[in-house]
Structures are given as C-alpha cells and as structure tokens.
Amino acid sequence: MSIDFWINVAVLAGIYGIFALGLQLNAGFTGLLNFGQAGFMAIGAYTVGLLVVNFGWSLWLALIAGIVLAVVAAVAVGISSLRLRADHFAIATIAFGEIVRYVLQNAQFSGGNQGVLGFDQEWRVFTDWLLGKLAIIGLDRYTQLPLFIVVWIVFAVMLIAISALQRTPWGRVLRGIREDEDATAALGKDIFAYKLQSLALSAALAAIAGFFVALNVSYLYPSVFDPTFTFFGYAIIVLGGYASYAGVAIGSLIFWALLEGTRLMDTALSAGQQASLRFVIVGLFLILLSRWRPQGILGNHEEMRVRS
Amino acid sequence: MSAPNLLFAGLVLVFSVLAVAFGIVPATQATLNGFAAGAYLGLGALGLTVVLGVLKLVNFAQGDLLVAGVYFTILFGWLGLPLPLAMLVAMLATGVLALITEKLVWKPLRRAGASHIQLFLSAIGLALVLRFSIQFVAGSQVRTLGANIVSSVTLGPLRFGTLQAAALATGLLAMVLVGLGLRFTNIGKEMRAFADNRALAEVSGIDTARIIDYTWFASGFLAALAGILYATSIGSFNPNFGVTLLLSLFAATMLGGIGNAYGALIGGLVIGLSQEWSTLLFNARWKPAVGFVLLILILLLMPQGIFGKALRRS
Amino acid sequence: MNATTDIILDVRDAAKSFDGLRAVAGATFRVVRGSITALIGPNGAGKTTMFDLLSGFARPDAGSIILSGHDITGKAPHRIARFGLVRTFQLTRVLAGMSVIDNMLLAAADQPGEKLTSLLAGPARARAAEAAARERAFDLLETFGLKAKLTDYAGALSGGQRKLLEIARALMTNPSIVLLDEPMAGVNPTLGRSILDHIEALRKEHGTTFLFVEHDMDVVMTRSDHVIVMAQGQVIADGTPADIRSDAKVIAAYLGGGPVESTAP
C-alpha cells in the first residue's frame, strides 16, 4: 500500500480531529450534546466556497468569514435551544443539521446536488510553492503532503490552545456545568452564557475543519457534509476517551486508520457496499465502546466511575 | 377551552381558510393526504414516545425501524409470501428485532448504569448499524413494494392511488385500534401508567420487565406498520427514508407530550396535515422542511406538548 | 420585630403552583440579618418549594422577595447567588467528577479568569485571584476536616463528607445568607453536631445569616434563634423557639397534636 494512502488517512484524521475537538469541548467538558456539528462545518465550508466563487473573495479572507458565520449560526442555535432540557437540545441540534443539509440540497444559491467548484486556486498556488520546497528533500512526489502539514499544524495548535483554555477557571466552570448545572448556577455562574461560548467555539472549530474538507475534496456538495458525519466525531471521542483532548488525536488516527483500512481489504464488495460497511462499523464502534469502554483509550476511568 | 378542543378548532379553521383560498377540492385532497401521512407519523411516533416515556431513552433508531419493516416486507415477498402476509410477518419480525435490541443493547446498558451520553450514542450507533446493514444487503437504489402503484380510485373529484387509499384506511383503523388497545387492555393501561410515571407504576406492582418487553415489541411492530404505510402511500423509497422521517416523528412526539401515547397519534396527525397542507403553499420538496420547522417551533414554544404538564425542577 | 432590626430577606405573599397544586400559597416572612433561622413544617408544607423560590430555581406566580434591598423576585439562580444568597440541596449535589479543591475553587466569587475576555486580557490577574481563592479554600476545608481529601474526586467522598463539602463550597462564595436544605439528613449525629458548631462559629465570625430546613426538633429548638413554621404552603407561625413551642396552631399542624418536641424522630 502506498504512502499516499496513509498520508490521506492522516489528513482525514487531522481534519476530523479538529472537528471532534469542538465536540469534546461540548460533550466531554460542558455536557452539551451537540448533534449538529456537521451543520456548522457545512456552513463554514460553503461560506468559503461561495464567497470565493461568486464574489471573488480571497480564500483566506473567506475562511475568516466562514468561521464568523458558523459562530453566528451557533449563537442563533444556542440562544433558541440552549435553555431546553439536554435531550431536547440534542434533538434541536439534529434538526439544525438536517435543515442545513436540506437547504444545501434544495436551494439555488448552494448549487444543489451539483455543488460548488473552483474555489481553491489560491490553495493550489500555495501547495505548489510548498511542494517546491519539499522537492529539496525529495518529498514532492506526495501531492497531499502540503495539506497534511497544514492540517496537522493547525490541529496541534488548536489542541494545545483548547487544552490550555480548559485548565483555566473558565474551563472549570464548563466542567461544573457538565457535572451539575443547577448546582453550578446556584454558585453564581451564568450557565447559559458558558454553554453558548462552548457551542460557539465548537462551531468555529467545525468551520475550520469544513475549510480543510473543502480543500481536500476541492468540490463542495451536500453529501460531503452529511449530518451523519457528526457521529464520526462522536465515534472518535468515544474511541479516544471522554474529557480528553489528547484522546481526540489518538482516537481520530485510530478511527480513520481502521475505517480507511477497510478499503484495503481485498473483497468482492461493490463500492456501495463498502461505503455501507464503513457506516456499520462506525455504528458498532458507538454501541460497543459505549457499553464496554465508555472511558475510551485516554479517558479517565476513575472520573467516569465516580460520576455515575 | 381545553387544549384538544382548541387544537381541533384550529385545524378546522386552517382547513376552512385553505378551502377558501385554494378551492375545496385541492384542500380536501391535501387533507386526505395529510391523514395518510398523519397515520404513519402517528404510529411511528407512538413507539418513540412510549420508549421515551418508559425507558427515558431517545430512540434515534426509530426511523430505521420503519425502514426495517419495509425491507423485511420485500424480503418475505421475495421468499414467496403474498404481499399482505409478507407485510404482517415483516411487522412481527421488526417487533422481534426491536426486542432483540432491548436484550442485546439496552438492558445491559441500563444494568451498567449507563449515562445519558452512552445511551444517546448507542442509539445513534444502532441507527447507523440498522440503516447501513439494510443498504449493504439491499442497496441504496429506489424501490417499490412491488404492488401496482399506478392504479387509482376516484371519489367524486378526488383521486387516490389504490394503495394510498388502502394505506389511509389501514392507518386510520390502526390508530383507532391502538387507541382502544391502550385504553381498554390491561397491557395498554399498564404501559400508559408506566410511561406516565415509572416510579408510581413500579410501586403499584406492575411487572416491569414484562412491560419493557411489550413496549419494545409494540414499538417495533408499529414502526414496521408505519413504514409499510409510508411505502405504500408514497409508492417509492430508499433506505434513507427513515432518517428523513425521524425528525417528523420527534415533532409528533414532542407535540403530543413525551410518554403520551394518544398525544403521539394526534401529534402525528397534526404534523402530517401541516406537511400536506404546506404543499398548497410551497413546492412539495420543502415538505420535510415543514417537519423540521414545526419540530423547532414545538421545542421552543411548547416543549411540554399540547397535553403536557409543566415539570417541576429540583 | 421592630423597624430598626436589619432584615436580610423579606418575603411577601409568595405563591407557587404546580399542576394546579398550590405548593406555596401566599407565604410571608422575614429573616433577620445575622440570625440562624429554622424553617419547619410537616411534609408537603412547601419548604423546599420556598427554597426554590428564594434561590431562583422556581419563579413565583405571585408575591415578592427582597434580598438586602434588592428585588430578586423571579430572577435567575446565578443572579440571586451574586446578590449573596447561596443554597444547598436536599439531596447533596457535589460535582462528582471534579476534585474537592476544584469544587471549592469553582465557587469562588469574582474570579476574572472565568470570563474569556478578562482571562485573555489579564492572565496574571486570574492567577492572583486563583491563588487567593486557593488560600480561602484551604482554610475552609481545614475547618470542615476535608483538607486531606484535596485532590480526591468529590464523587469518591462519603455521604457525610459530601454534605460538608457542599456547605464549605457554599461558604466559599462569600455569602451573606446561606440556605441549607436539611443539613443534618443522612449525617451521623456527631458530624451533624459539628456542622451546627461550624454554622454558629461562622455566624459569630462573619455575621453570615443561615436559614435552614430541619426536621429534628431538638436541633431546631436548641440551635436557632428564630423559627418559621409553614403548613399547606403558608406561614402559620413565626417567632422564637419558645414562642413556637407553645403555639397552638403549630401543635395542631403537626398531626397528633402533642407538644412539638415529641415529633422528633
């Protein structure tokens, strides 16, 4: 198997690592079941694509706009739904994800199922420049290497930043909310404001992940941002462990290695069957890990035990 | 005025306005379509609400149980059973499938004292396994149940597919039967009592394990019925129809109030009518979006549902 | 109560219904600053609902609640807490998955590091506040005998220790009034007495006001300076323990009609 294959696995692991960092912040550290993360990712990616293609924006400026718009969407979703009970909030976020998918598929502006194409010239200029540098050490054969490098630098920076943030008094309030929001409110914390911040930050991370997804496939269409991808993020979290940011990196690597690894199996399966099989595997991950190893690989078993 | 009366009056009012605006025939046609949709949404939501009420479990796999019912029908038809019999066997099989999920997934998780998030993710995992196992075996192409979907019956100026009419009649009949069963049979009464207040039902000596088993079986059985009604009244489908319907099922559940079985049936009717009526106003492809919007509105404006009561905190 | 007495909490005609059931039906009472006041009454008298109303966990249907001159009627729990009212819960609610010290530090008021903007603008200030809070937390944990458990998960503590932690955590907010919902329930008598001793000491040192729900009449009669009696959602008597002991309405409210002391378990 080629190195290109594994570079691609690492690219996916990095992108979905960024994506799942946000979910970890929400689910693992705030107790918020955000099931609409793919919707925020789609908003980020489509904003970038449409601003570049239709309005001639610079790719980098459009990235910032994409993050801002995803955050605005998160604030809108949050203000309307964060006061709901936990399970109602989860359902509301699923509805949000479905609405985004539905609009992208059916609306004029998003190109429907034809999607959006041709937004990544600036990225390709950058890629060529980086490949030129890589040629010096003879690595310019691997065309995905620039994306890999950029994604993992961004992922590492985000991971370190959010871990640091988690250790501050701000992060402590989030954990308090996760443990018991009434008790935390009784101590004078405005839990709504914190949940909103948690959701908004998570949406920003989703938008960044969406940007890289867009660069990776160089073509935006609704099924790339299917709401089901939110649950890829959750599979990564249960694999790596709740309430562990380092676990996100490890979980994402293992998850994508296993999932992409299924492509290597020499089977008589059709492409459609292989795709279905991948989703079955993700589903089994969620069921089996929730049952047998809810703390994941790096999650804290003691913490899980005392909480239940 | 009580909530149900108010609701009924509201629906009649909307119908009248639509009849004036778009003509009596299109409005009636849309209303009948709405009843057909309401039947499958209501029956599908019933399983969701009872499981939610009894086990405090948001069963994200409910939509995929509808799909399982339809594909079981195809399977049994392919094995040589005549269509009506295949449907019945498929409903039983889906009931058993739901029961198996209880034994294999839910009961062990409850025993282990699983947290909210473990339950949620398991439900989603189960939904993915169901949906994509079906896709793996049956493919994702659009199918029909193999019956004649072109023949139609006319009733004055109204026109129906024969199957659609059968689905409508069956659905409404099933709703009445289920309603009567919940009202008058022992198991129905116990289930409602259990869904309404589990602690109280337990101390009053109801056999918990038995109720839970019945609940799952009924949930799967009715989900399959709902799926089959969907497949017959729409005509064609693919394995993704369950997940598309799921949010409408949630909307019906929330509207009726969590754990309220009658509420789910009525909630389903309201959602079904709203979606079909919306086709008079917008392009029909936005029909699912009407379900999403209603769900969000219900969550925001009346999270206890029409018949729900305010819950007390702490 | 004469006009010069300093009133910290003034409740007038507070009412709250659930499902048409009047849990609190027009209750009126006052709590004197620096007092230890007991709230008693038979089961279903509306004591816990009253606590919910006072702390913002339920919104009153009618009436008003004034805390140190601020109208807190129907305000959100966190805003009421910032006015200096902190509560504990009937079923102890420690933050199980957090360490004992984190439980305490979370409760510290005025921590600039809890706001993203001030955290990023002045991390040094956040660190200073954190150090100060840590000192206070050590003192309180010392007082409550939890110093040795500093890094343990709160969820790993015993029932009695959790109760102590919850009270210590409440005090960490620098409250002017603390609402304790059955602080003695599920705690062994020795520990219970030491909780009461701490409360008396804190009142003496800081002038903190305590309002507590309690069923043990011996405790109520010997440890409080003021008793409020609720029955069927209303305040039926209000006075010193001695007044309450001889109040005919109170005796009637506690079924059996005997002297109040005998109802203690």
Structure characteristics:
heterotrimer; A: 308 residues; mainly alpha; B: 314 residues; ABC transporter involved in vitamin B12 uptake, BtuC; two-stranded antiparallel sheet; two-stranded antiparallel ribbon; 4% strand; globular; disordered C terminus
Structure description:
- The complex is a heterotrimer of chains A (308), B (314) and C (265).
- Chain A is mainly alpha-helical.
- Chain A is built from 13 helices and two strands; from the N terminus they run ααααβαααααβαααα.
- A two-stranded antiparallel ribbon of chain A has the order 1-2.
- The longest helix of chain A has 27 residues, at 191-217.
- The model of chain A has no long low-confidence stretch (mean pLDDT 91).
- Chain B has 314 residues and is mostly helical.
- Chain B has one domain: ABC transporter involved in vitamin B12 uptake, BtuC, CATH 1.10.3470.
- Chain C has two domains: 4-94 and 175-253, 3-Layer(aba) Sandwich (Rossmann fold), CATH 3.40.50; 97-156, no CATH class.
- Chain C has helices at residues 47-55, 77-82, 100-107, 116-121, 123-143, 159-172, 189-206, 217-223, 241-245, 248-253; strands at residues 7-18, 21-32, 36-40, 62-67, 70-71, 85-87, 177-181, 209-213, 226-231, 234-239.
Per-chain topology:
The complex is a heterotrimer of chains A (308), B (314) and C (265).
Chain A: H1 3-28, H2 37-55, H3 59-81, H4 86-106, E1 116-117, H5 121-136, H6 145-166, H7 169-179, H8 181-186, H9 191-217, E2 219-220, H10 229-240, H11 245-264, H12 271-292, H13 301-307
Helix pairs in contact in A: 1-6, 1-9, 1-10, 1-11, 2-3, 2-4, 2-9, 3-9, 7-9, 10-11, 10-12, 11-12
Chain B: H1 3-22, H2 24-55, H3 62-78, H4 83-111, H5 116-138, E1 143-144, E2 152-155, E3 158-161, H6 162-184, H7 186-196, H8 198-203, H9 208-234, E4 236-237, H10 241-256, H11 261-281, H12 287-301
Antiparallel strand pairs in B: 1-4, 2-3
Helix pairs in contact in B: 1-2, 2-6, 2-7, 2-9, 2-10, 2-11, 3-4, 3-5, 3-9, 3-10, 4-5, 4-9, 6-7, 6-9, 7-9, 10-11, 10-12, 11-12
Chain C: E1 7-18, E2 21-32, E3 36-40, H1 47-55, E4 62-67, E5 70-71, H2 77-82, E6 85-87, H3 100-107, H4 116-121, H5 123-143, H6 159-172, E7 177-181, H7 189-206, E8 209-213, H8 217-223, E9 226-231, E10 234-239, H9 241-245, H10 248-253
Parallel strand pairs in C: 3-8, 3-9, 6-7, 7-8
Antiparallel strand pairs in C: 1-2, 1-4, 4-5, 9-10
Helix pairs in contact in C: 3-6, 5-6
